[in-house]
Amino acid sequence: MPRTPLAAGIDIGGTKISAVITDDDGRRLAFDHVPAPAAAGGPAMADAAAALVRRLEAEAGAAVGIAGVGAAGVIDQRSGTVVAASATFAEWAGFALGAALADRLGVPVAVDNDVNAFLVGELRWGAARGQADVLGIMLGTGVGGAIALDGRLFAGHRGAAGEIGHTPGYGELVCTCGRVGHLETLASGRSIEARYAERTGAAAPIVRGSEIADRARAGEPEALAVFDAAGRAVGLAASSAASMFDLSFVVIGGGVRAAWDVLEPAIRAGIDGNPPVSGFPLEVRPAELGADGVVLGAAALAYSDAPHTMPAGASVPTALAAH
Fold first, then answer.
1. Where is the signal peptide (predicted)?
2. Around Cβ 59, how many Cβ atoms within 10 Å?
């Protein structure tokens, strides 16, 4: 039987690029990150990512045979192209990221957005192992979502399935996108800090989310109220998604997951107050891959049956095709 190749997982964000080399059990052989040259355009980002992988190969003393990328923005999985992205990235929308990295690394490359990669990682190596129908939620600077059906990522027609952060119905606050009442206005790390500042009249510098969580643990009413609103909103969103797709499991990651002990009771209250229409319980678990969830998820994506962009003139390796 052909030997399964090592994989590079790459997480491309607006401020840094992280990479890891793993085997198919998720064992990390090398890891590091570098600043992201987001203002320099897509080719510069691909150059930085490829150079990082090459350095990690040298550290690990082994070459990768496949690579996966979790990137910020809306991604066309089939072509590995960035369809849309925030203004943080220069010349990023429309960039053929998969082809650029495949040619630079000389291996097949699978590309998806960062939240989809996160969910693939949790399905393969994390809290969602063995689950079939799953909602993944990332509570970070913003709020992202992803869906798996029958154990496989469901991306939708344009790669944006599961993006619950910008769904409406959560009040009258203006979202960062300019629209009103989105889940992100209550449940992102940035919004938790903003809502706390509004409640307390705190002036700059703004109280960080980790400190607000500590104050909630100490019983401070304002901090508890902010996390209660965030958690109940997440619970409502999870229950709504479960009703639409008949999901049974939710995994929650991102930086806000560090406050799981104060967030989970409110999430459960939000679900219990608006249970899925199926009548069956919805299991909610914190992510297990932690701060490295996206970069490890990108490596898991490389091992998955997601579309891979091939280097020019290459064919799919036998080990990958059989995997």
1. none
2. 12
